[in-house]
Design brief:
This protein is an alpha+beta fold. It has a single domain, classed as Alpha-Beta Barrel (TIM Barrel). The chain is built from five helices and three strands; from the N terminus they run βββααααα. It has a three-stranded antiparallel sheet, with no helix packed on it. The longest helix has 17 residues. It is globular and about 45 Å long.
């Protein structure tokens, strides 16, 4: 997993037919504490994670997994879903990992949350 924060948007000079209407973001790789590392990447925004957007959190993992065709080699920008988790940033990270595990296993988040407290807390907060 790569931690990153949105640094800006990307303007394309050619249309990308494989992802119609896609928005690309310039993201800066950072530490789990959101400290920039000076490394920049281009990320496909499939959940509306632009600058100033509401938090990306665990509950969006199943749709992201589905919309990307089951991709797991991607950047999931979830600063608010980590830092804003009611049980702290560590629990925020675990809730997102649990949501991805559920999505990849074909299990609903609600069902998976029965045995995973961090995901259950995220669902109560934002779900």
């Amino acid at each position: 997993m790569i931690f990153a924060r949105v640094a800006g948007t990307v303007v394309l000079t050619q249309r990308v037919d494989q992802v119609p209407g896609a928005k690309f973001l310039l993201v800066e790789a950072c530490t789990p504490r959101q400290e920039g590392r000076g490394e920049y990447l281009v990320a496909l925004d499939v959940v509306g994670a632009g600058v100033g957007a509401p938090p990306v959190w665990a509950g969006q993992a199943p749709d992201t997994y589905r919309l990307t065709g089951g991709a797991i080699d991607l950047i999931y920008i979830a600063g608010g879903g980590i830092q804003g988790h009611p049980d702290g940033p560590g629990a925020g990270v675990r809730s997102i990992r649990q949501a991805w595990d559920a999505a990849m296993s074909g299990i609903t988040l609600e069902e998976y949350a029965r045995d995973h407290g961090e995901l259950a807390a995220a669902l109560r907060r934002w779900g």
